[in-house]
Design brief:
31% of the residues lie in helices and 30% in strands. By secondary structure, the chain is of the alpha+beta class. It folds into two domains: 140 residues, no CATH class; 94 residues, no CATH class. Strands 1, 2, 3, 4, 5, 6 and 7 form a seven-stranded antiparallel beta sheet that branches. α1 runs parallel beside α4. The N and C termini lie far apart (111 Å).
């Protein structure tokens, strides 16, 4: 006798939903683990440094470029070149190395002869001085259709991301902002001597002042303004635009024109433990 199998459609639907929920939970668990791994790696951003290419190439629409750093290479694609305040600025879209945490709807771009051959487009954009970008970055192969890239950026901007992706893109946005500031202020950057940096870092670690640095501090006629990349110096009339020297804890760190906005790289976390006498500015007698 032939026996017919009878299926309970409600039961099947319910089981299907269960499978979907389990699969989604596993996916989120894997993405969560990758996010934590990425966080650990990005903790090094407080010591971000850029290694300029010194190529001075001609930046054009659609160019993919690379900026070499001490942490990870930074990739972007040129969307527009705009003029503002008498200077040319490049608007770019950030290309992430993290393929698993990027949007599933983002296109992949292949980059030949690079440490990372595959990157993904993101909705994150930035603006940097064209002149500085041409000196600091390396040119890579341009995209075929920059208009298509612009459309994808707009599309990706309209997606409502879940909590894991929101946290990931917030970290990526911070990375982009740091690169923006670094590139735009490149001509004003001061690097601390390694011995002084090690001394400050040792003292800083022992005092456990990781979260105590203030946004702005005054040291006599000098105001320090902290940012994610470093500390900008703004001088009073006594020093501004004169030729002089800057000392920290008795060590010379800069000699030249005292232009407002000079930035000491990776210095922000140390400022809160300095005394007023730790920063000294001297001007040359010929001023």
């Amino acid at each position: 006798m032939k026996v017919s199998r009878v299926f309970d459609l409600k039961s099947l639907n319910y089981k299907g939903e269960q499978i979907y929920v389990v699969q989604n939970e596993v996916k989120n668990m894997i993405l969560g683990e990758r996010l934590e791994q990425y966080k650990e790696m990005m903790n090094s951003l407080e010591f971000l440094e850029i290694y300029p290419s010194n190529l001075e190439w001609n930046v054009e629409l659609g160019n993919v470029f690379a900026i070499d750093t001490n942490i990870l290479p930074f990739y972007g694609v040129v969307l527009d070149v705009v003029k503002r305040d008498g200077s040319d600025f490049v608007r770019f879209a950030y290309l992430t190395l993290n393929l698993s945490l990027a949007s599933v709807e983002a296109p992949l771009l292949r980059i030949k002869d690079e440490p990372f051959e595959l990157v993904k487009l993101t909705h994150i954009t930035g603006e940097v001085l064209k002149e500085n970008l041409s000196k600091i970055s390396r040119p890579l192969k341009p995209v075929r259709d920059v208009d298509e890239i612009r459309k994808y950026v707009e599309k990706l901007s309209g997606i409502r991301y879940g909590s894991i992706h929101r946290e990931f893109f917030e970290m990526e946005s911070n990375f982009v902002k740091m690169i923006e500031e670094y590139v735009n202020e490149y001509s004003k950057i001061i690097k601390l001597p390694q011995e002084l940096f090690s001394e400050l870092n040792s003292e800083f670690s022992s005092l456990a002042l990781a979260s105590s640095s203030s946004k702005a501090l005054r040291f006599g006629d000098v105001i320090l303004v902290n940012s994610a990349v470093g500390t900008k110096l703004f001088f009073g009339d006594t020093f501004a635009n004169k030729v002089g020297k800057i000392f920290i804890k008795g060590r010379l760190i800069y000699e030249g024109k005292l232009t407002n906005g000079l930035m000491i790289l990776n210095f922000a976390k140390f400022t809160s433990m300095l005394n007023e006498t730790d920063i000294r500015v001297e001007i040359e007698e010929t001023n």
